[in-house]
């Protein structure tokens, strides 16, 4: 059992969301039992149509069921139901082994979330599906620039969390965009993130990924836009206001120039459109300012709540 500086035993929970992973789940459970012999391993079966649940139970893990389809729904139930000092999240497809260092970083309070970085591993190979790697790079670039962080592997399912992170994280995603939401939540609330390289290996033959490059990619991008608006409203609405302001000027300046030359305003529709766009830009700025104050107040409330949840 891992111990902290106070030599008190700490509870470790291994969380494994599963959907049709009968081919690999037994090995995953055994690997994590060996790496964390005193941890409780929870496997949440998400409407599998194979014998994943039976194999998991025979392997010695605690089996629970989540009937709302989607990885985000499973993580929501896990975080709500389970209390522990350290949470290790893994996938049931056996694409990476357990890394005990993750628990050490959480239990020593050096991080609120530890990210298993597959991309820095010498074992990692580019995904063979078209546009999948391009999408990953685009998402990573967006998040790192919008939230001023430097995370190498945004989409990895290999993570560890503190009790404080789990109990203050509002799970809003339903599917595979959950990992991106976790990263943005940490960045927006200045929760400590640490990345460590993890070995990545291909799925065994016959095992297929449930991730859809296109539909899940669109969900991730929509979620990034929503959280950017919610966490940084002044920048979000200010950017829209600036665009409308520039368009308004482009429309208005020729009308103004013509008026100075002739004393006439023959293009009233253009002038009206320019005025409306300018008005909308001002309203967006006001919305951004008001929401920025609300976000700051919510941040203060979050910090107080974070103190109360400390174990």
Task: Offer a few descriptive terms.
seven-stranded mixed β-sheet; 7 strands; 311 residues; single chain; 10 helices; disordered N terminus
The description of the largest β-sheet is: 7 strands, mixed
Structural class based on helices, strands and sheet pairing: alpha/beta
Count of runs of 4 or more consecutive helical residues? 10
Helix % is 40-55%
Query: Low-confidence parts lasting 5 or more residues at pLDDT below 50?
Result: 1-6
Order of helices and strands: EHEHEHEHEHEHHEHHH
Major beta sheet, strand line-up? 3-2-1-4-6-5-7
CA radius of gyration:
24 Å
Compute the number of strand runs. 7
Molecular shape:
elongated
Terminal-residue CA separation: 18 Å
* Overall average pLDDT: 88
Strand content: 5-15%
Describe this structure in words.
The chain starts with 11 loop residues before the first strand and ends with a helix. Helices cover 51% and strands 11% of the residues. Helix 5 (132-146) packs parallel to helix 8 (213-231). It is built from ten helices and seven strands. The longest helix has 41 residues, at 268-308. With 311 residues, the protein is of the alpha/beta class. Strand 1 (12-18), helix 1 and strand 2 (40-45) form a beta-alpha-beta unit. The radius of gyration is 24 Å and the shape is elongated.
């Amino acid at each position: 059992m891992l111990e902290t500086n106070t030599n008190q035993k700490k509870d470790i929970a291994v969380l494994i969301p599963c959907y049709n992973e009968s081919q690999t789940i037994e090995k995953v459970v055994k690997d994590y039992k060996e790496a964390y012999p005193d941890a409780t391993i929870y496997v949440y079966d998400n409407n599998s149509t194979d014998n994943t649940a039976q194999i998991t139970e025979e392997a010695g893990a605690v089996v629970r069921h989540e009937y709302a389809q989607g990885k985000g729904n499973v993580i929501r139930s896990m975080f709500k139901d389970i209390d522990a000092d350290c949470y290790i999240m893994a996938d049931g497809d056996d694409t990476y082994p357990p890394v005990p260092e993750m628990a050490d970083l959480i239990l020593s309070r050096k991080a609120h979330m530890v990210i298993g970085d597959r991309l820095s591993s010498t074992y990692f190979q580019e995904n063979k599906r078209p546009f999948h790697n391009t999408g990953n790079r685009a998402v990573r670039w967006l998040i790192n620039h919008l939230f001023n962080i430097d995370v190498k592997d945004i989409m990895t399912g290999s993570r560890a969390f503190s009790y404080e992170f789990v109990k203050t994280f509002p799970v809003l995603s339903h599917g595979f965009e959950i990992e991106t939401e976790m990263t943005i939540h940490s960045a927006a609330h200045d929760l400590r993130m640490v990345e460590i390289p993890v070995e990545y290996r291909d799925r065994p033959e016959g095992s297929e990924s449930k991730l859809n490059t296109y539909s899940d990619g669109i969900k991730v991008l929509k979620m990034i836009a929503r959280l950017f608006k919610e966490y940084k409203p002044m920048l979000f609405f200010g950017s829209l206001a600036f665009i409308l302001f520039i368009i308004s000027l482009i429309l208005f300046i020729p009308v103004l120039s013509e008026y100075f030359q002739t004393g006439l305003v023959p293009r009233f529709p253009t002038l009206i459109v320019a005025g409306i766009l300018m008005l909308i830009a001002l309203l967006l700025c006001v919305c951004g300012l008001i929401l920025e104050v609300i976000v700051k107040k919510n941040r203060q409330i979050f910090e107080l709540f974070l103190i109360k949840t400390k174990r």
